Amino acid sequence: xxxxxxxxxxxxxxDGVAEExxxxxxxxxxDLGSEPYDPEMMAMVMAAAPxxxxxxxxxxxxxxxxxxxxxxxxxxxxxHVVSVDGKACGTFExxxxxxxxxxxxxxxAARVVWxxxxxxxxxxxxx
Length: 127
Prior knowledge:
Blueprint: H1 4-12, H2 16-28, H3 39-48, E1 51-59, E2 66-74, E3 79-83, E4 89-92, E5 108-115, H4 117-126
Antiparallel strand pairs: 1-2, 1-5, 2-3, 3-4
C-alpha cells in the first residue's frame, strides 16, 4: 500500500510514469480521479453523503448486554438497513422506523446508534 507521502513525492515528479503511479495511488487511497477535487466539489459531496448507523438490540434490564443486528444508511428521503448476516434488508422513511421489525418488549428493545465521522475514521485507520 502506498501512503500519501509517497503519492506527493510521485506527483511532484516530471516523469509521466510517476504521474500515473501517483494517480493510481490516489485512486487506491479513495480518490476517484487523477486530479484532486476542489473544495466546492468536496463540500457538495459531504453535504449529500448519507449517514451511517447500527441497529443495536439490548436487554432492557441490562443495557450493557447488547448486539448489533444490522447496519443502515440514511439519506434525506430514505433509509436502508441490512442485517449483519446479509439475509434481511429493508427500506424505511426514517431510521426510527427501521426499528419496527425488532419490536419492543419488557425484556428486549432496539435502538439506533449513529456512526460518527470520528468512529468511521478510527475504523479505517485500524485496518
